[in-house]
Specification:
The structure is a homodimer.
Chain A (H helix, E strand, L loop, with lengths): L12 E5 H18 L2 E2 L9 H7 L7 E3 L2 H9 L4 E4 L8 H9 L3 E6 L2 H12 L4 E8 L7 E2 L6 H10 L3 E8 L10 H24 L6 E4 L2 H6 L8 E2 L9 H5 L10 E11 L4 E4 L3 H4 L16 E2 L8 E5 L4 E4 L14 E5 L3 H5 L4 E5 L1 H4 L6 E4 L5
Parallel strand pairs in A: 1-17, 2-10, 3-4, 4-5, 5-6, 6-7, 6-8, 8-9, 9-10
Antiparallel strand pairs in A: 1-11, 11-12, 11-16, 12-15, 13-16, 14-15, 17-18
Helix pairs in contact in A: 5-6
């Protein structure tokens, strides 16, 4: 391992720069500590125990997950306060209850009265639960839409009155922050997110129902929010790695992208000014989110490219088509040469791999593999 | 296992209908047997030993793979004639040589003189190789472009004259058949594919270089080709499952889609005529290929939908947004209900899963899980 470098790895491979990762983690951690807000990182991006432990350093260890597989994996790694932030359904309550009986405070979310009643029923059958009610602060995904919050108090009363159920609070995710590209634009979404979730908490408290947790957050709103008043915790996720999409919406700088895909050049096609690499749709994902702001990024851009706007412009399953906005100097990238590709959306790209090869640009420019971290995929 | 049904599985889950799979396999097998062409199925779609064995039944067992991980897995399962159909690079020759020393005829492809020379060098160091030269029959991906075929004889001579290297033949993939949507359109591409690869073989033979294998194929061209003269083997892949993209380009019928994703309804949003399911970007993939012909399919369509054009219209990582072209009867799909979603592109969707839950629509409408097949992912 000590002598392994980027030149020795099989391609495609997922490369993580630990120096950048550490700076990303420290920046978010400091920002939220300074704001007096708890950090509950969303570990769906890294899905890695090592990175999860680094992310919660200096905080109380609470995390967010997106699957029961993540919940089991992080529980097995010693995490005890876990929010499963995808609306729960009755058929998953047995698995939730099983983890809770092992001493893990796995919390669930819902926005549905029938699910609240099913949780009540499962609790009467002997399990315990901790539940947050989901609010839609404007993203138009899950949650009771603000400002109407239809049925909020009905759901809250069922949970509040159920035996062995803790109504732990309210949560929201301002996913629409991903479509803003200025600090002011994101800050406006952040304020919308804050007002919605604090209003929902106030409505519960006004009805005599406690609401200890007021949970919000996305990476952009965590970075650009100007006021956290009333929010008790933030749940940013992709900030650990960042990606082209985060760069383009201004949630990070160009030097803050910790993740890349290592690929080999497998062919030259000068008649169409393209080369092929062995990283295609599976190695990069078909996520094109970053094209919203810069169409020329395709499926990812080439690091230290020898030509302008060099990017993976098309993908088939295991082939990436690399083009550029000027003639490619093919001699600089012979067949067999290695390139690194920055992903559009780190969470989706990383999901094709079961481990990270860790390098450190503060040590030797990031040439040597200094560690490997594993990941949990699937459900 | 015997009593497990679609209602018992954790969601999301990958569901394979064995009855449809068997019909798809038999149809392609019969067609190519009837045409006197060998079948070398591309196992990158299913990546499963069980399905690979079913696919080669009645043929000689040759297969195509897209990664070295697949090569190792299928070699471990007893397959001995394997074509690795992504341009090889020098750094992968040691792994190829290692499998060959175990008695597996793992064949590689290249279109690059420098790689041919590296293969020659590795053979002089003690390994043996079998190589096919890749031809671009019009897809504009890998291969020497037809009709020029620049450098074909130079590459061929290096391989032909190298010790312990077999120049096994030529191969091409008419990927552009995926952008045709009529039998005549696909048949025209198939004829272009055939002419290109047969011409390349003839050019080698004209120079006194043997060319035993003349390999072509994609699912659409295998289905719609009207003349296989001169082709020795075809390499269809996605025909084992089919998908919405194959249906829309006319490579299969609507009843031939063997693969689906089982998901749970996790929330109702009647104010925007949407519901959410727990199958999002990872469970379905972000492949939108099928939108080329029917934009309304989004990221996949709902099986037995209770409303017109009901489909996953947007995805975040673990949330699928389901919309329809008329009001959704939400009472028919309560939160917790299960739906099945047909994928746009089966190869990419399946890659998020490490196993198939197998049902059989000829037995009980496909309710019971009759088997599980594993998959090999990664590289």
């Amino acid at each position: 391992m000590a002598s392994q470098t980027l030149d020795d790895l099989p391609t495609p491979a997922l490369i993580l720069d630990r120096a950048i990762l550490r700076r990303n983690l420290e920046r978010m951690s400091s920002r939220l500590r300074g704001a007096g807000v708890m950090l509950r990182p969303h570990v769906k991006t890294a899905k890695s125990l090592e990175i999860g432990r680094m992310a919660v350093a200096g905080h109380d260890g609470r995390i967010t997950v997106s699957t029961l597989a993540e919940a089991r994996y992080f529980a097995g790694g010693g995490f005890t306060d876990i929010l499963y932030a995808v609306g729960v359904v009755p058929s998953k309550l047995a698995a939730v209850g099983a983890l809770r009986r092992q001493g893990v405070n796995l919390r669930v979310v819902t926005d549905t009265l029938a699910v609240a009643r099913a949780i009540d029923g499962a609790a009467r059958d002997g399990d315990t639960f901790s539940v947050l009610i989901e609010i839609d602060s404007g993203a138009g995904r899950a949650g009771l839409p603000f400002p109407e919050l239809p049925g909020l108090l009905d759901i809250a009363r069922v949970l509040h009155e159920a035996p062995d159920v803790e109504l732990a609070g309210v949560m929201t995710h301002a996913g629409h922050s991903y479509h803003e590209s200025t600090p002011d634009g994101v800050a406006a979404v952040a304020e919308q997110e804050r007002r919605a979730i604090v209003s929902a908490a106030d409505r519960l408290r006004g009805a005599g129902i406690p609401c200890p947790i007021v949970s919000a957050g996305s990476t952009p709103t965590a970075v650009h929010s100007r006021d956290f008043t009333g929010i008790t915790e933030m749940r940013p996720g992709v900030y650990v790695f960042n990606d082209l999409d985060q760069e383009f919406i201004g949630a990070c700088g160009a030097g803050d992208l910790a993740l890349s895909v290592l690929a080999s050049v497998i062919g030259h096609y000068p008649h169409r000014n393209q080369l092929l690499v062995d990283a295609g749709a599976l190695a990069l994902s078909k996520d094109i989110s970053a094209q919203e702001f810069r169409p020329q990024v395709g499926y990812g851009t080439i690091v230290d490219a020898p030509a302008k706007d060099m990017a993976v412009v098309a993908c088939s399953q295991e082939h990436g088509f690399v083009g550029a906005d000027e003639p490619i100097p093919f001699g600089n990238l012979p067949v067999g040469a290695r390139v690194r590709i920055l992903p559009n959306h780190a969470c989706i790209t990383a999901a094709a791999y079961n481990r990270y090869f860790v390098v450190d640009s503060d040590l030797d420019g990031g040439r040597s593999v200094v560690d490997t971290y594993d990941r949990i995929n699937g459900w």
